[in-house]
Amino acid sequence: MAFLKPVWDVIKGFVVKTFWPWFKEHALPRLKEYFIEIFCKILRSFKEEILRYIDELFRNRAKRAEDRATAAEKQAGESATKGEKEKYEALAKVWREVAEEMRQENEDLKAKLDTIETTHEMKLRQQISQVDVDLEIDDQSSRLAIGGTKHELRQLPDGRNATRYTRIG
User: What CA–CA distance (Å, rounded) separates 25 from 127?
Assistant: First the structure.
């Protein structure tokens, strides 16, 4: 098994000197973009879910206000006195204004959510693209540094326990 130590040293040297710089330059930017797109899809899906809820909520409220306005107009048409008719017409006008305010608030909220989504997507892109990733391998340990935080990796195989990693079957 001691013959595996020089082989492992060559592999480790290849990883540190050749593969890792290539990976950081060519593969890591693509992976970052992939993660950005995944997170942006999740963000958009979350926003769409909220929009559906808000839209339904405000449409229901606007419809109730419209129904009340229609009922007040009907009562105005059936009123026996001019004063009662004016009262119900005023009430119908107020309910129509409430319905219109509900529609407008719905549109305002949608626009606000679009702005929030755009802002957070830009922040997400900036933060992920700025994350630095580095690999440190020595004889005793391996560490992956992500955004300045180092994470110990599983011990790399050496000549004594390499068979555990290379056994087939």
Answer: 18
